[in-house]
Amino acid sequence: MTMVRQTRQRSAVIEVLQTSRDHPDAAQVHTQVREKLPSVSLGTVYRTLDALVRDGVVMTIERTGQATRYDYKRAGEHHHHAVCRACGAIFDVPAAALPQPPAAALPAGFQVTDVHLEFMGVCAGCAEKNRA
Amino acid sequence: MTMVRQTRQRSAVIEVLQTSRDHPDAAQVHTQVREKLPSVSLGTVYRTLDALVRDGVVMTIERTGQATRYDYKRAGEHHHHAVCRACGAIFDVPAAALPQPPAAALPAGFQVTDVHLEFMGVCAGCAEKNRA
DNA sequence: TTTAATGCAAACAATTTGCAGTAGA
DNA sequence: TCTACTGCAAATTGTTTGCATTAAA
To answer: Could you list the residue range(s) of the whole structural domain that residue B34 is in?
Structure first.
């Protein structure tokens, strides 16, 4: 059995994720963590984030050419994302408003642990700008 | 207006994508393209793939730490993906079997151009192996 | 002829990893 | 004590870019 230790670094990373509402990437988490604990390395931030994702505490938003962004899963606030192709902004979409996808169409024996649903498109602001 | 030219390289990339059913990444596309057209560079493959994604002809599957995988959009075969966390295998999930997500919960004025739906989990084979 | 597309190699950026030292349990 | 975790720097890996050349239109 793998033994998980509670370290100051780990707590700091979790606190930053719980506090911030803006889907930060690893570098941004690192910067914020350093305000409290200046010696923390970027490598440790990555290692901690990986562990949190493995534990299912945090979810990721992945886009080619951009750094992976991390989103803390708050109890009872399950949500998905709407990503603007133009400006890259990410909006939260409450999952409660969406229908549950049935597992019927999945490959036989596939165990779903997580559903990633993203709406790609153009946000109101960018749509406005493009009308020029 | 941007002028798009029909080159041998571009045709080769498209043909490889249309032929393969296994969600290849850029390097794999490159290898396959070279079987027909040995001089094609990886850079050109990337540029072509980017263009195809921009044109909406091809969709991507993005996972941190792994190469982006490309999936040709066949008419009338709209589908989503089930990704195995353990072995990385990607299965197709026909979209017809899934309910249409209502745009009601989206941010005001957000124009959806594409929906990315991924089921993360463990496939039957890997689940079997883990029972040891 | 005009200029988009190419090949090549160098540059980049995000992420991972090896290792010796630090500190939870 | 024991070994997971850390900081640091170097190494990987995937992807992008500059530039001189080639080839569609």
So the answer is: 8-72
